[in-house]
Amino acid sequence: MNVLVLDLDDTLVDDIRATRESVAQVLALENLAADSKVVDQALSHIRKMWSRHPHRHTGPLASVSGWEALWLPTTGSGLPATVADSLDMHAIQVWRTIIESLRGDPSQAIAVAHAFRACRRRALRLLPRVESGLKLLGRKHRLWVATNGLPAQQRMKIAATGLQPVLDRILISGEVGVTKADPGFAAAIGRSLRQDGQQVCLVLQPGIVITAR
Hints:
This protein is of the alpha/beta class. It is about 45% helix and about 10% strand. Strand 4 (about 200-205) and strand 5 form a beta hairpin. The longest helix has 21 residues, at about 80-100.
């Protein structure tokens, strides 16, 4: 069988839409505005504050998005305690900034940070028709996932959405040691293919379809 290499976020698992829904939910719980424009503004705060975080490029965090950083696993992340603690404080500071921008009560930032984490985990789901599509593709292909991110979080997404049984291999930047944009990631895929005696027939990620041999 040939191998299909699939991206995870927004190819198989719903990411940005689920994130927007979760942001809107926690703002609405605080009786704050939660329309699309407000969510856009909140995401802007999230991106800007994450870009300035001192551990933004620490190990596997180099490929984590600003909104993912707000709901990373609290246990088993593999991150040093000082980094994990800084991420908890970061989430509180982000929500305090967002709440203040909406003239809400900034003392609710801790509660909102916890609420977002819970909402975002509940929002884990596959994109439409992914489940049926993978069953069809899996009849004649081996299915691999290549994804950026913190291993504990990406594997949690895979387990929570029921993908694990249909995937033959999972390659995560935090385990490979480089992001997907680095040639070293492609080299790691190549080594795995040679070890298994396989070849790639297609690579799929958001907005890109690349045939390969």
